[in-house]
Amino acid sequence: MTPKKFFIILLIAFFAVLLITAIYVVSVVSYGLPSIDQLENPKQNFATQIFSADGELLDHFYIERRVSLPFDSIPPDFINALIAVEDRKFMEHWGVHATRIFKAAIKNTLAFRTKEGASTITMQLAKNLYFSPENSLKRKIREAFTAIQIEKRYTKNEILEMYINTVAFGRGAYGIQVASRVYFNKSPLELTTSECAFLVGLLKAPERYNGIVNYERAITRRNLVLSLMRDEKYLSDDEYIKSAEEPLNLAMGKDKRIWTAELAPHFVEMIRQKLSKENSIQGYDLYRDGLVVYTTLDSRIQRYAKEAIEEHLTKYQQLFNKSWSWGNNKKLLNDLINKAIKNRPDYIAAPENKKQDIANSLKNNKRFIDSLKNAATTLQCGVVILDPITGAILGMVGASSKFMKEHADAKYSLNHVTQIRRQPGSAFKPFVYASSLGMGMNPQSIIECGPYTYTNPETGEVWTPRGTGHCEPGETTTLYQALAASINTVSARLITQVTNPEQVVNLAHRMGIESNLYPLPALSLGGAGEVSPLEMASAFSTFANQGIHVKPYFLTKVEDHFGNLIQQQGKSHEATDVLDKKISNQMTYMMEAVVNYGTGSKIRQYFKNVSAAGKTGTTNDFADAWFVGYTPQLVCAIWVGFDDQRITFTEGYGYASTAAAPVFGIIMNKIYNDPRLPYKQKEFSYTRDSTDYSSQFNIQLTPTPENFDADKQPDTPPKDTGTNANKPKIIFPILPKQKDSSKINRQLIH
User: Are 507 and 429 in contact (CB under 8 A)?
Assistant: First the structure.
């Protein structure tokens, strides 16, 4: 073959390859490219942001946790680091860097593997916006053509802005706005040069260089980025040395559990569930459209509530663990084991002839048994704090700190503020007393407090409640004293002789209780219905708001990605005039006695010099401990107990006076000692004569009687313990007489 013929064949082959390549490229780009509309309006998944009332970011709802950031809010050091590492000729090329592609092709061919990439920032943006992560020649060709189209339609700064807002930084963070929070708990403009270099270094392999698994590897990668910035003249030698010597103070890894990493997980989950069903945001995607949700929660109050729970329940969990014996509860343990085994996926999926083997293996697995014991005996709680005037939920703790720390998915667990229903015990008595005041009684009305038996006139059923406050037959007391001491026989007399169960149920529902209540005499002791802590806080807010009930709410407004209003809480909240103002003031006056020297007096060990009112509640066998109370400006409901109601406190430490009431004192002490918070009113606003007493009677904090022991004043005891000699009667301050009370009371009671 002559050289000329060889050259002709070679030339034909070259053009044939070129033609085949051209045909292939045309076939690849003839479909699968974004449309003009998609290029001009790229669809990005932006996370919904949830903010507290005081402007703190609480959480995100997202498919990709991404929040858009304008170009002028992106740190220049981050942009410089990005260009130095990813695309040094970014400002010069037109979307595709031909020289870089040619060099990469030669190196990869000689190495027989993909040794070097040739993607520009624009090509990477095209991949992030329009293509799957599939590693193929087709995708690369489409990326290149799309990059050229992007460069035609957007400026370099706009391309950088889009890229920086879409790129993945690992740990569920997309875009620098979220990444700076996740890794450093800072806004982007607060990042140092070193921190910017670290974040750019993550882009190559986020999980490899995040500094959590291998800190030294992260430092090495960051320093490489800094050296490239120096090479491109973005940093001087001195700036490079200073940044390279800076340690990485990562926020990641310090707060390993949701309890500490997320401020209000159950509150946020409650919002997610509501918005998912909300008609007003139909047409928007809660996880992709970058909505901004503003809430009523105050981050400072929320922190104080969490701290109080942590302080109190940590000690109480230890106390319970010492007193609880599984040896005395073998049947319960066996029931828990059998139920847990039957609910396991491997047991359910196993053939019938293998199930017993699995069960036997698990029953002998100490780790499995210990985990069940721990879960069953984990103390739980629900705490909610409201503004009684507006109904705004200011704080919410839906589970105990121990539970939150031990369960990675705890934010989706049972919310013990809104999703449980438990008997309220004596915490329900204020509704009985308020109904009785509506019948003409008053705080100094005299009523018998000794043993009491009620016979239902229709059924003949006999009911004899326990809890006389150590009153002998025929002895009397005032309503004021009876509520402070939580005397059961007085509440029983009130609901059967003064008011009636139907009236009490009706009043409780109008005040904010939404759960079903049964109109039975046992309702006077909180035993004829189950309620949630949020309902109790809502109802007690009626007392605090001088008879006006305002329905609780937690959303203030929702905006779209561009700041357009989608939904807003109206200024006029759902308010109902329920109680006569005088009655609500009388109830506040009486419940102050509960806190000052009644069953809630433990509160005064933590919280002093501010008026407070409320009521404790302990259910049978110490199953539930409640305290619902309020100050002149805040209402708080607290429930403490166990998820499995067969597990209860074992001794007198389970009384609400010590198990729940101190939490109220700890929270309020923190709030009222914070000068940043607006809660300065220390006395209730009702006037001295608003409770029908003479103007000479001074309604102030009353000192605790010397011989009163609140710990020995059970609300609803499981059994009578001790003798009268061991539990002295309460001595209260003498109240001034009211003009017409004795005649009314003698007619009603005797």
Answer: no
